[in-house]
Amino acid sequence: MSLIPFDTLKLARDLRDRAHFSPEQAEGAAAALADAFQDLDAKKSAIDRIDAKIEALEQRLTIKIGSMLAVAVGVSIALAKLVH
């Protein structure tokens, strides 16, 4: 299913009737555009998957940094109590 609704038959007819393309030219142009839109859909899907992975990594990194900060604060407090 294409993310972009695209009627290749209507395009081919419009190219034939309005732009005076030959039937072969009109069908070829419509098919080429349909292929291009499918490629765009595939790229959009890949980008969506990458975005999801980036969000997951961002959450993991936030948790790790928060944990490291908590440990650093705890160690600092413990050292401060030992010194005094």
UniProtKB/TrEMBL annotation:
Protein's recorded name: DUF1640 domain-containing protein
